[in-house]
Amino acid sequence: MKDYKLYQLIYNKTMIHDDLINSNVIIKPSKNDIVNYAIKYFNEDLNELIYPAKSFSVAIIYSYLLQKELSEKFYDCLSDPDLFCGNDMYFRTYSEEREIYDEIIESIQLWSDGFSLNTELFQVKKTMDYFLLEFGLLAPSYQ
Predict the structure, then answer these.
(1) CA within 20 to 30 Å of 38's CA: 7, 58, 104, 120, which one?
(2) Residues in a beta bridge with 51
């Protein structure tokens, strides 16, 4: 097991999460709903949690940050069934939902030279904060 996964596992076994899925969420499982919400997750402030789309967005952010911060391979991370230590019942790996992930990644232009996560957006900032806590990173380099 890689050191960062061990740190994440210990964090998830010892800390209380305040973002666990509860009954106050909206479920929209269609491909169009997933893609549309996931794109919005990267581009505008959102007030609703819509699953499974939120799970796709967070998986992309975690995989992106694992690549940037820990030099892991993006698609390997996105294909890891334990990316969230089993804490997200809506998470699907890249190999399970390749078409949806590819459409989101292309739409947000993840691989363009000018891409950066918009930390002004509440949900992106919160996702990044959780990432930093889970992996014990105190000095991120997002640019």
Answers:
(1) 7
(2) 27
Query: How many structural domains does the chain have?
Result: 1
Q: Residues 50, 37: contact at Cβ < 8 Å?
A: yes
CA distance 135 to 20: 18
* Contact between 70 and 135 (Cβ < 8 Å): yes
User: Looking at 14-139, which runs of residues are DSSP E strands?
Assistant: 26-27, 50-51
| Domain assignment present for 46 | yes
CB 60, CB 105: distance < 8 Å:
yes
How many whole angstroms separate alpha carbon 29 and alpha carbon 112?
28
pLDDT at 22: 52
Which pLDDT tens digit goes with each residue over 110-129?
Answer: 999 989 999 999 999 999 99
Q: Which residue, 33, 7, 30, is CA-closest to 85?
A: 7
In a domain, 82, yes or no: yes
Rounded CA-CA distance 2/19 in Å is 25
